[in-house]
Design a protein that fits this description.
Elements (H helix, E strand, L loop, with lengths): L12 H13 L12 H20 L1 H5 L8 H26 L5 H9 L17 H18 L8 H29 L3 H20 L11 H6 L7 H19 L9 E3 L4 E3 L5 H11 L3 H14 L1 H18 L1
Antiparallel strand pairs: 1-2
The structure holds benzoyl coenzyme A.
Protein name: Phenylacetate-CoA oxygenase subunit PaaA
Pfam families: PaaA_PaaC
InterPro entries: Aromatic_CoA_ox/epox, Ferritin-like, Ferritin-like_SF, PaaA, PaaA_PaaC
Length: 321
């Protein structure tokens, strides 16, 4: 979209709004210096921040297994994956910065519980198979949700998502491959893989957010072309993708109501426990305290790195000047 003059006052916004609406309707990208409604900016900051926080908190459950990976190869892959998640966090915090919101402010809101991160990361990683289940299901759900975000109306977020989705795709495959190795292994390994899938399946379905009827932001976000599909549409797509993959893995999805519906051309699936989802969001999931406690500690322990980087930048800046 062509850059417009900054907002100069309430009396002028109708004209700007018409240009903004036309740009969104024409599938043009909104860029940082374009005029945008305050609510559009706030919605983007909320979603991008929640997404960025999810990426960095999401490093914890898997990092838990780096020291116990069963081989050098598995360890190297897992370390690369966890580092990728940190990188995703950085792209996303940078995207939020283009909306005028600093990283410090967002991290402060995360640490004080004023901003959310994905419910999925409040579950524990009990066995090595959980690393596979996270890759296959959690990264799989993330891709299903995030590929449409590559067409998000806000340019910096959409562009960040392109690279993130490529990396998530590698993550999903490594998880699938890990689970396949376990599933084809000994009886105990197969049982471990099945147990992990049993525990991660329902929380993965919750990642897509509340049902459409209870999704407070979906209608407006879809009108602004931030979201391209509803929560339920994406959840359904994910279920339909996973069913044949589970069969190839030789694993069962823990849902007795899961069956193909010829008429709909989609799978029917059982009821999701939305009470559990709400409890996790309220901070009462199995690992909420552990995750946020660890995040705050990491931030405090990293203070010297931020100070050193700032001192270096100041010195370097002076030298250049
Ligand atoms: N967990 O109106 P709704 C990853 C909140 S990271 C917690 O439908 P919206 C990965 C929602 O924020 C995966 N909260 O909202 C990393 C809202 O509350 P507020 C993260 C949730 O925004 C490491 C309220 O419920 N991906 O892939 O239209 C390793 C009402 O919901 C959740 C993203 O963040 C939840 N699951 O739609 C491996 C993708 N769901 O803000 C993998 C980008 C909903 O009013 N985000 N809420 O207090 C999105 O696409 C959307 O924000 C959502 C929710 C679909 C998640």
């Amino acid at each position: 979209m062509t850059t417009m003059a900054p907002d100069t006052g309430a009396q002028d916004t109708a004209g700007y709004e018409a240009v903004f609406d036309a740009a969104v309707a024409a599938e043009e990208r909104i860029e940082p210096r374009d005029w945008m409604p305050d609510a559009y900016r706030a919605t983007l900051v909320r979603q991008i921040a929640q997404h960025a926080h999810s990426e960095i908190i999401g490093m914890q459950p898997e990092a838990n297994w780096i020291t116990r990976a069963p081989s050098l190869r598995r360890k190297a892959i897992l370390m690369a994956k966890v580092q990728d998640e940190a990188g995703h966090g950085l792209y996303l915090y940078s995207a939020a910065e283009t909306l005028g919101t600093g990283r410090d402010e967002l991290l402060d809101k995360l640490h004080s519980g004023r901003q959310k991160y994905s419910s999925i990361f409040n579950y524990p990683t009990l066995t090595w198979a959980d690393v596979g289940a996270i890759g296959w299901l959690v990264d799989g759900a993330a891709i299903t949700n995030q590929v449409p975000l590559c067409r998000c109306s806000y340019g910096p977020y959409a562009r960040a998502m392109v690279r993130i989705c490529k990396e998530e795709s590698f993550h999903q495959r490594q998880g699938y491959e890990l689970l396949l190795a376990l599933s084809r292994g000994t009886e105990a390994q197969h049982a471990m893989a099945q147990d992990a899938v049993n525990r991660w399946w329902w929380p993965s379905l919750m990642m897509f957010g509340p049902p459409d009827a209870e999704s407070s932001h979906s209608a407006q976000s879809m009108a602004w072309k931030i979201k391209r599909h509803s929560n339920d549409e994406l959840r359904q797509r994910f279920v339909d993708i996973c069913v044949p993959q589970a069969a190839s893995l030789g694993l069962t999805l823990p849902d007795p109501d899961l069956r193909w519906n010829e008429e709909r051309g989609q799978h029917d699936f059982g009821a999701i426990d939305w009470t559990e989802f709400q409890e996790v969001l309220r901070g009462n999931g199995p690992c909420n305290d552990q995750r946020i406690g660890q995040r705050r500690r990491a931030h405090e322990e990293g203070a010297w790195v931020r100070e050193a980087a700032a001192a270096y930048a100041a010195k370097h800046g002076k030298a250049t000047a």
